[in-house]
Amino acid sequence: MSGMRGRFLVMEGIDGCGKTTQMQRLAEWLPGSGLMPSGAQLVQTREPGGTPLGQALRQLLLHPPEAVAPGPVAELLLYAADRAQHVDQVIRPALARGDWVISDRFAGSTLAYQGYGRELNRELIVQLEQIATTGLQPDATFLLDLPLAVSQARRADQANDRIEAAGQAFLQRVSEGFRVLAAGRGWWCIDADQVPDAVTAQIRDRLQRGFSEGG
User: In the 8-state DSSP scheme, what is residue 51?
Assistant: First the structure.
């Protein structure tokens, strides 16, 4: 695979939108889809938590003891630290090998949750994003778009992490922020309020049209 850069795909959306299911289906389908060059491997990862450092940060960010729960700015910087390590240790090396990477969340989630949700300065977040990613951009980002009420109904019997427990107004801002980002950044927006098979079919169709030869 020497000399051929891989592809970087990202799945975004609010909790309950079906990312976990669709990530797994994508990971099972892509290697035999004809889209990946012969010899390319598929790397499946996530944020936060895609590296050993990231796993420690994930616990601190989502399930911290009350005494050490980060404030909004500290939270932002911890997510940036997770991403910087992730890009440096996992994503860029894989792409340089010619492998394909699919990630459950990337920089868009920080803008949605910390920029729109926490209402931190979004221009500064974009600058921080450039530092953490060293300018790396996904080749394609999917937004699994789901109404907040449907998300909450799907997750009614699940325990909330610290971010999900931030309140209705916060989550509504996050949901709206994702839609703004999708429109402004050219993401592929998929209606996630469908049966999983329909969502899967639309994701595959988008990829086949977007990454077919000459596409």
Answer: S
Residue 32: HSE in the Cβ half-sphere, 13 Å Cα cutoff? 3
Question: What residues does each domain of the chain span?
Answer: 8-211
> 8-211 architecture in CATH?
3-Layer(aba) Sandwich (3.40)
39-to-2, 42, 98, 170, 175 alpha-carbon distances in Å: 10, 10, 9, 44, 38
Cβ–Cβ under 8 Å, residues 80 and 138: no
pLDDT digits (tens, 9 = 90+) for 2-34: 457 899 999 999 988 999 999 999 999 999 999
Q: What's the pTM value of the predicted model, to 2 decimals?
A: 0.91
Long-range CB contact pairs, 160-165, < 8 A, 24+ = 161/62, 161/63, 162/61, 162/62, 162/63, 162/64, 162/69, 163/61, 163/62, 163/113, 164/15
d(CA 53, CA 49): 7
Backbone angles phi, psi at 24, to 5 degrees: -65, -40
Q: Which tokens is 54 given?
A: 């990231």
